[in-house]
Amino acid sequence: MSLAAIIFDVDGTLADTERDGHRPAFNAAFAEAGLAWQWDEALYGKLLAVTGGKERIKHYATLHDPAFLQDPESEHRIARLHAAKTRHFLALLESGGIPLRPGVARLIGESRAAGLRLAIATTTTPENVTTLLRVNLGPAAESWFDVIGAGDIVPAKKPAPDIYHWVLQRLALPAGSCLAIEDSAHGLAASLAGGIPTLITTNAYTLDQDFSGALAVVPDLGATGLARLRQLHKATYGQHK
Ligand code: XBP
Ligand code: MG
């Protein structure tokens, strides 16, 4: 089976969004709402155990402010906090504060030039993805991706494979003809459960995670172009034509 499509995760893979992007955006939303919650870098690293912003807020409240969840309005309050957080995050993106990681733009360009199909599979909010692409790659970038699977379109977020199943179905490709690029153990669990060979590009939060089952683990995509991805994919699937 030859390589037909690359499916990118977003947070931590396309860009280092978590520590200096989502985290301060959450804190700004909490401050705006008059909450004394403050997520420092170390705490945020632990909270990343739960994917999805709304889910992460609820997880934090369960651990550190259970009274918040006694309020019958708490689900609405979480939704409002998350909407405010998204507003702050988008403003940061628009200001150019979150560049793509090394090698990402080049790999996207090489893949397009070679006629590979591109897709996104992420738990983050759809506008976060489209804005990140537009700000860093220009107004046409969203159209380069055949499928953008993001946010609440599937009920179970990573590490569940649902978002990868959703994307594969829309690509109408077998899992083995795709290659996923992820940065975290949760992302890897999701893509592997979807049957997709996966390359890991680590970041500071995920460096020490267990990436058993990955095609390879690299510190970034700076030295990993399309030729290397084809090699890695062929080593796994090349024998099954
Ligand atoms: C990323 C996430 C996201 C972001 C926040 O996981 O867990 O929740 O932290 O985005 P992955 P939202 O990289 O595996 O997709 O606040 O928009 O949910
Ligand atoms: Mg990620």
How does the SSE layout of this entry go?
Elements: E1 5-8, H1 18-32, H2 41-47, H3 53-64, H4 74-94, H5 104-113, E2 117-121, H6 126-137, E3 147-149, H7 162-171, E4 178-182, H8 185-193, E5 198-201, E6 216-218, H9 226-237
Parallel strand pairs: 1-2, 1-4, 2-3, 4-5, 5-6
Helix pairs in contact: 1-4, 3-4, 4-6
Magnesium ion (MG) binds next to loops.
How does this structure look, described?
- This protein is an alpha/beta fold and 241 residues long.
- The protein has helices spanning 18-32, 41-47, 53-64, 74-94, 104-113, 126-137, 162-171, 185-193, 226-237, and strands at residues 5-8, 117-121, 147-149, 178-182, 198-201, 216-218.
- The chain has a 6-stranded parallel β-sheet with strand order 3-2-1-4-5-6.
- The chain binds xylulose-1,5-bisphosphate and magnesium ion.
Q: What general outline do the C-alpha atoms trace?
A: globular
Cα end-to-end separation: 5 Å
What is the CATH architecture descriptor of the largest domain?
Answer: 3-Layer(aba) Sandwich
As a percent range, the share of helical residues equals 40-55%
In sequence order, what are the helices and strands, one letter per element? Answer: EHHHHHEHEHEHEEH
Strand tally: 6
User: What is the averaged pLDDT score?
Assistant: 96
The CATH class assignment of the largest domain is: Alpha Beta
If strands are numbered along the chain, what order do they take across the biggest sheet? 3-2-1-4-5-6
Please work out how many helical segments DSSP would assign: 9
CATH topology assignment of the largest domain: Rossmann fold
Ions, cofactors and other ligands present here are: xylulose-1,5-bisphosphate, magnesium ion
**Estimated share of beta-strand residues:** 5-15%
Major β-sheet profile = 6 strands, parallel
How many distinct domains? Answer: 2
Radius of gyration: 18 Å
